[in-house]
Specification:
Order of helices and strands: HEHHEHEHHEHEHEHHEHHHHHHHH
Number of helices: 18
Structural class: alpha/beta
Number of strands: 7
Helix content: 55-70%
Oligomer: single chain
Shape: elongated
Length: about 350
């Protein structure tokens, strides 16, 4: 069973007598458990019909006693067992739990949580056969931006791909922390329907010191001194060189579009929509685009591609690569070569 299937079932009040959550992503496990508890337990009777026990502190007899009790003035009770693998560390405990799994009480939803189950042994083999099992494994790096996009969509808003990648780069792979930052972003954007990369840097990046947007603004203004200072601080803060290249490539793509848009007599709102930025930043892009000719932007794309290749294929010091890249972007054709080492 997936979390989506679980949600669909509990919304219809279709509850299983036993749920088994396992995997390393505890945030997803907590969400799944909360789905069941929210729908299965009457809030007014929660103190009577919801028990939480820890496998490291409870014993199997106690768990079975909780699970075998009938609900009080309600249709269902829920028993949540965390650290389940510690509860079944002995043969007698394994046998007792396996016996209950064979004939569970239908008016109870017993929720078992284990980070590292051993499916070669009882009672985990029994759970595979008889329980609704939900695996909540850690997501791969490539899956995180898509997860962020889907999560924001649940709140009836959108986030462009750059915003999702930038949030991932700032926060890392912790879904719990990402969710917390998404809540802050939702408050920040208010009634606006879309979260942009600029919103992410304003809300999340502000706590990181200088951001890639500070760097692109310095490059856009062709301010070599400011760009070098900002880059130095970003590297010291451990910000991702690959992310810088991705976002700077986006920036020069926007400048390239700006050259074409300036001749179409569009409103600031229309230009902002075409560029995928807040209308507040349109005047900045008009100013920056005037400082870069089409030929210079082409050379900037070449420099960005070259720097990306060097970072991915050599052991060259990222600081040196980025220093030379920033010089290339600002000075144009006067750039030094980034030959692999």
């Amino acid at each position: 069973m997936t979390l989506e299937q679980l949600q669909a079932a509990v919304e219809k009040r279709q509850f299983a007598p036993i749920y088994f959550f396992y995997g390393a992503e505890d945030f997803l496990i907590d969400e799944g458990v909360e789905m069941i508890v929210a729908k299965a337990v009457d809030p007014a009777m929660k103190s009577f019909n919801f028990d939480v026990v820890y496998g490291s502190k409870a014993d199997a007899k106690e768990v079975v006693a909780h699970a075998s009790a009938f609900p009080m003035m309600s249709d269902r009770r829920v028993v949540l067992v965390k650290e389940f693998e510690k509860l079944v560390s002995s043969d007698p405990a394994r046998e007792l739990i396996s016996t209950y799994i064979e004939r569970p009480l239908e008016s109870t939803s017993l929720i078992l949580v284990s980070l590292q189950p051993d499916f070669r042994r009882k009672p985990f083999t029994d759970l595979k056969k008889s329980a609704e099992t939900i695996e909540c494994k850690s997501l791969f790096d490539s899956q995180i931006p898509h997860w962020i996009s889907n999560r924001i969509r649940k709140y009836k808003k959108k986030a462009n791909p750059e915003a999702c990648r930038l949030l991932h780069a700032y926060v890392g792979n912790s879904l719990r922390i990402i969710h917390s930052e998404i809540e802050k972003l939702l408050t920040f954007v208010g009634d606006r329907p879309e979260i942009t990369a600029e919103d992410v840097t304003a809300v999340v990046g502000a706590s990181k010191g200088y951001t890639v947007f500070d760097l692109q603004n310095a490059i856009g203004a062709k301010d070599m001194r400011a760009a070098s200072r900002i880059l130095e601080r970003m590297i010291q803060a451990g910000q991702s060189p690959q992310l810088m290249i991705v976002m700077l490539t986006r920036f020069f793509t926007q400048l390239w579009k700006m050259h074409d848009l300036k001749s179409k007599r569009l409103s600031d709102g229309q230009i902002a929509s075409e560029l995928g930025v807040n209308p507040y930043f349109v005047k900045q892009f008009v100013s920056y685009s005037s400082k870069f000719s089409s030929e210079e932007i082409e050379r900037c794309f070449q420099a960005l591609l070259e720097a990306d290749t060097v970072l991915k294929t050599t052991s060259r010091d990222p600081k040196i690569v980025l220093d030379l890249l920033v010089y290339s972007l600002i000075k144009g054709s006067k750039r030094p070569e980034l030959s692999p080492v």
